[in-house]
Structures are given as structure tokens and as C-alpha cells.
Design brief:
It is built from five helices and ten strands; from the N terminus they run ββαββαβαβαβαβββ. The strands form three sheets. The protein has a six-stranded mixed sheet with strand order 4-3-2-5-6-7, sandwiched between helices. It has a two-stranded antiparallel ribbon with strand order 1-8. A two-stranded antiparallel sheet has the order 9-10. Strand 6, helix 4 and strand 7 form a beta-alpha-beta unit. Helix 1 runs parallel beside helix 5, helix 2 packs parallel to helix 3 and helix 3 runs parallel beside helix 4. The longest helix has 16 residues.
């Protein structure tokens, strides 16, 4: 496809923080709150907006989208993790909540231990939902040191971790990334990386295909050392062009 426009993008950020509160997160809830707090601390209180959601088998809105949110709602300190995990469904539902946040750089940031035992949607179906509305998904896997392949005491290989499984693929297909965090320094660094990526993006415009339906999208650069993260495709045949 011929590129019709290329420019650096400087919009404000609109992020949905999605926190897993299912039973398997009992040992990680404090870490999830800390990771979310680091994310709030990096937002521009004058421009950026955030919405906060929790999920187990269903999605709950804890904080409607608002500018200037600096601290987590108090009820997050009293939530007791319980129940099964509909991780894939929750990501798709949260991405849809961002549909109307137009003119902003949107993203879903997930804090989870990575287990899913209740969803109806597959990772591929979720990535299609998020990609269609241009919402990258960032997944922060909160695990113990023994489950972190970067740790010296880990018994998990990188191939079996959250950085290479179906959740990692889901994030990559949407233009996002997956991370693993076991220590406070990891959670702080990951927050900075994600917000830095959201603030340094480019818009590439092209004429969409005339054939209706889903079209895969691959962005390559001449410099083979560069890493490109972009949505995995787009839906054609809508009422207005997709860029």
C-alpha cells in the first residue's frame, strides 16, 4: 500500500487499567496495586485520562475515565480476590470501553498472573476486537521469582512464560507488549516503558482495501534493526476510511 501521510503523533493518553481480582491473584494483589500506582504516577495530570476496571468472571468499573487521577480508588484496598478468571473476555470488553475516547492515544494495561479458565473468547478473537478499534494491549504478568524466567531461581523457561505464550501473542497482535514483573523495580520500570511508548508513536495513513472484511497489516522498515509494533490488521467496508 502506498503511504499517503506519515507524521509523529502527540495526543494526550487515555488508558484503561484492568486489574485481575480473581482467586489466583490473592498473593499478587498488593503488587498489582503498586504497579497500577506507578502507572498513575507517570500520567500527565493536566491532559491524560484513566479509567480503572477489575475483573474475575465479569468486568466492574471502579473509576470512570477522568483526567487528573493520581491515586487508586479506596475500594481496591479492600477487594478480596475470588472466583474464576475471564481474562480474554475482560480485555475485549475493556477495549470496547475505549472506542469513544477519540483524539487520544488509547491503550489497555492489564495486571494479571496470566491464568484464564472462564473466557468465551480466544486470544485471536480478542486481538481482532482491539486491533479493529486501534487499542494496543499491554499485559504485565505479576509472578513470583520462581515463575520469572529472568530470575536465577526460576524453574520456568522463557518459552513457557507469559512473554511467549498466547497472551504475549495477543498483546503483539494489537501493537502492544507483554512483560513479567516480580520486584518493585521491575514494576516501576515497566510503567515508564509503556508510557514512553504511548507518547512516542507515529501515524501512517494509507488507502484501505476496497474489499470488505478483515485485512492483515504488516509494517516493515528498511532498517532491519528497528522493531515496529503496530496493529495486526483493519476492517474495510466501513462508512469512512481506516487509517
Amino acid at each position: 500500500r502506498r503511504i499517503s501521510d506519515f507524521q509523529q503523533d502527540y495526543p494526550a493518553v487515555s488508558v484503561a487499567l484492568l486489574i485481575d481480582v480473581s482467586g489466583s491473584m490473592e498473593a499478587q494483589m498488593g503488587n498489582a496495586r503498586e504497579a497500577a500506582t506507578f502507572m498513575l504516577g507517570g500520567l500527565d495530570r493536566q491532559r491524560d485520562e484513566v479509567g480503572i476496571y477489575t475483573f474475575d468472571t465479569h468486568l466492574d468499573e471502579i473509576q470512570p475515565f477522568a483526567v487528573g487521577v493520581q491515586v487508586l480508588p479506596p475500594q481496591l484496598s479492600t477487594i478480596k480476590p475470588f472466583g474464576a478468571t475471564s481474562l480474554h473476555d475482560a480485555i475485549a470488553a475493556t477495549a470496547r470501553r475505549l472506542t469513544n475516547r477519540e483524539g487520544l492515544r488509547r491503550a489497555v494495561i492489564v495486571f494479571t498472573d496470566g491464568s484464564d479458565n472462564w473466557s468465551r473468547l480466544t486470544p485471536a478473537e480478542v486481538s481482532a476486537v482491539a486491533s479493529a478499534i486501534d487499542v494496543p494491549v499491554y499485559i504485565i504478568g505479576l509472578v513470583s521469582l520462581i515463575d520469572n524466567p529472568a530470575s536465577d531461581i526460576s524453574n520456568v523457561t522463557i518459552e513457557r512464560s507469559l512473554q511467549s505464550g498466547t497472551l504475549a501473542s495477543l498483546a503483539a497482535w494489537t501493537g502492544g507488549r507483554s512483560f513479567i514483573a516480580s520486584a518493585s523495580v521491575d514494576r516501576s520500570a515497566i510503567a515508564r516503558v509503556i508510557l514512553d511508548e504511548l507518547r512516542h508513536q507515529y501515524v501512517i495513513a494509507f488507502e484501505s482495501s476496497s474489499q470488505p472484511g478483515w485485512h492483515p497489516l504488516v509494517v516493515r522498515t528498511r532498517d532491519k534493526d528497528l522493531v515496529v509494533r503496530a496493529r495486526s490488521g483493519y476492517d474495510a467496508g466501513q462508512s469512512r476510511p481506516i487509517s
